[in-house]
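## Example record

The block below lists the input lines for one assembly entry, exactly as stored, with component labels intact.
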Amino acid sequence: MIFNIVRKELKSIFASPMGWIILALLMFGFGTQYLSGMDNYFQVMSGAIRPAERVGVTIFVGGQIYGNAAFLMSFAIPILTMKLISEERRGMTLPFLFSAPMSITEIVIGKFLGLLIFLGILVVYIFLMLSTMNIWADIDFGYLLANSFGLILLISSFVALGTFFSSLTSQPIISAVLSFIALIALMMAGRYYASAPDHWFNHISLLKHYQSFSKGIIDSADIVYFLLFTLTFLLLTIRRLDSDRLRG
Amino acid sequence: MTITLEAKNLSRQFGPNFAVKDVSFNLERGEVLGFLGPNGAGKSTTMRMLTGNLAPSEGVVKIGPYDILEEPKQAKSLIGYLPEVRPLYKELTVDEFLTIAARFHNVGSKNLKQAVDSAKDRCGLMHMSKRLIENLSNGYQQRVGIAQAIIHSPEIVILDEPTVGLDPIQIREIRKLIKEIGKNHSVILSTHILPEVEMVCDRVQIINQGSLVFHGSIDELKQQRIGNKLQVGLSKAPTLKELSSIDFINKVEKIENNLYRFHFKKIVDAEKLAALCFKNKWGLYHIAPDVTSLEDIFAQLTMLGN
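Predicted structure tokens for the full assembly:
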């Protein structure tokens, strides 16, 4: 049943130009960074004389791309999530889903997974693009896999948060703006208390938990953080939709 | 007759106001039930509760053996619902949308194509398969809405004001379609147009300000509507007093110039009245059943209720 919702979501993303445009723009962005990263690598490394300044090409190019991916996603995902529920609310199509023999939990998880799979295309694409460096260099696949895994977790948190804001309003633009602000605030949270690294404020920062993946470290605390974050917002969405049925 | 849908003491409050108050009724297999009421009477609210889109404040809805709150999935799989605002994904084609609808209602992938084709066939959409829903006319969009409600051949089809906003020819076609659907499914249909109910439905219930005020067969409603009176036009009429003294006439009212309303004592006997008019040369030029408007029926029924 969840699978049918996933299918429907993917179909409607690709039925409108929006999905293709976002996919194309993001891929263009990553591709450009990849090219300029490679270019810079040789310039920077030829100037780096001391061994400590030298880093592998995987970390040099990959680190840049994965770091920027987090920011690009925080722009792109609100635009995609606003379609999930807000637009259904505005088009009065939610009764179509609610009258079908499916639970609200299935609907929400299906929508979430549908968008996650769509964005998964990008993660796979970035991985494949960086893998092409293996033709002439010996690259660190472990590093790429850790980053891909981290990026997937980060994206799923973004999507869950966006879905929740999408469920709050019938104005898609408002839901997009709200989730964009929330995402930026959560990403930047670490900057406000930079001088006190152990302040609790730092620990809720999405970016801080993502950063350990970009060093190639898979820390269970980070995984749990992202999973809990995702779960929380999905539960809030389910509650919100359920209260529609109760309160009308 | 088996009962396929049962609503018991259904109430719904929005804040302090009752949108629907203590409504109970049954739907039998293979009947078309008309839900009649003025705008804001609680028709849509009732339908949303029947289909599990809105939780009732009080009361029970049973679809077949299943309670819609206790076993929503089983109950919902027996219903096809077309809300007041048709829920269509306009960026999809008719085929794509109906395929999604069929999958949502657990039509197996083997029967998928057949289900989509038969729904399209029944709603006259065969030649529209590859068109985007966005580009269809109002009437065809409504057909797509009905097609998605019958795609899984549910036992019960619930249609909320299916003819609103259509032109007269489209309305006629949609009514024909609903009659056709009524042959194989139980149908609940809401409308605020009285003749529509008389044309399409077997049974009718009238709802006003959230409460059921009338519940019965179409013939009973017609009886209520037509009653025992005739509208008669006489160009050379005698005085009202003279007319009222006819032995089988209870009362005569003047509607306008030369147009009178005759209330019969027992049953309507037009022939007898016409013969009398000829005999006395009253200049009979018009004789017709005196149809009460929906508003009058509401007024009558609500007054009866009070």
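Chain B has eleven helices and 14 strands. Residues 168-184 of chain B form the longest helix (17 residues).
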